[in-house]
Amino acid sequence: MAIIIILQTLSYVVLYAITGFGPGIMLGIIAGNTMGAWGKSSISDKYAKNIKSADTHNAQWHPTHNKWRTPKH
Q1: Between 47 and 66, whose confidence is greater?
Q2: Which sign, positive or negative, has the C-alpha torsion 68, 69, 70, 73?
Q3: What's the structural domain count of the chain?
Q4: Average pLDDT for the chain
């Protein structure tokens, strides 16, 4: 009987850790990134810039790009 109570208590602790700490950690990371670097780009801004740069770079290899069209004489 005691093992059931211990397991039930541990399940509540694990449930609280998952539902309580997870959002708090994420909000802390977001707040630290926003407040800690005034005037600097955030990580999400850097990701968006790098994705756009990679998209522009990779577009040159698409067959419809002007680079691969044969010149008409």
Answers
A1: 47
A2: negative
A3: 1
A4: 82
